[in-house]
Amino acid sequence: MLSQINQAAVLAVRAAEEHGEPAVNPWLIGGVVLAFLLFLLLGLVWFGGGRDHS
């Protein structure tokens, strides 16, 4: 029983230590999110730009 727990612990530590390249570049994800948020901001300004303030 104790041996199984030790093996599970060793496997968990090895899995946590493995490093690899991310599947998608984080800069690409950040750029896409930034472009989307800027698009939403421009849409908000366009929608509310011609209205009078109350």
Please mark out the parts with pLDDT under 50 across 5 or more consecutive residues, or reply none: none
| Broad structural category | mainly alpha
Number of strands: 0
Order of helices and strands: HH
Considering DSSP H and I runs of 4 or more, what fraction of the residues is helical?
A: over 70%
Assembly type of the shown chains?
single chain
Radius of gyration: 25 Å
Strand content: under 5%
* Whole-number mean pLDDT: 82
Total count of helical runs of at least 4 residues: 2
In whole angstroms, the N-to-C terminal distance is: 73 Å
How many domain modules?
A: 1
Largest sheet: none
Shape: rod-shaped
Condensed summary:
With 54 residues, the chain is an all-alpha fold. It has helices at 2-17, 26-48. The model has no long low-confidence stretch (mean pLDDT 82).
Question: What's the layout of helices and strands?
Answer:
Blueprint lengths: L1 H16 L8 H23 L6
Walk me through this protein's architecture.
This protein is mostly helical and 54 residues long. It has one domain (1-46). It has helices at residues 2-17, 26-48. The longest helix has 23 residues, at 26-48. The protein is rod-shaped, with a radius of gyration of 25 Å.
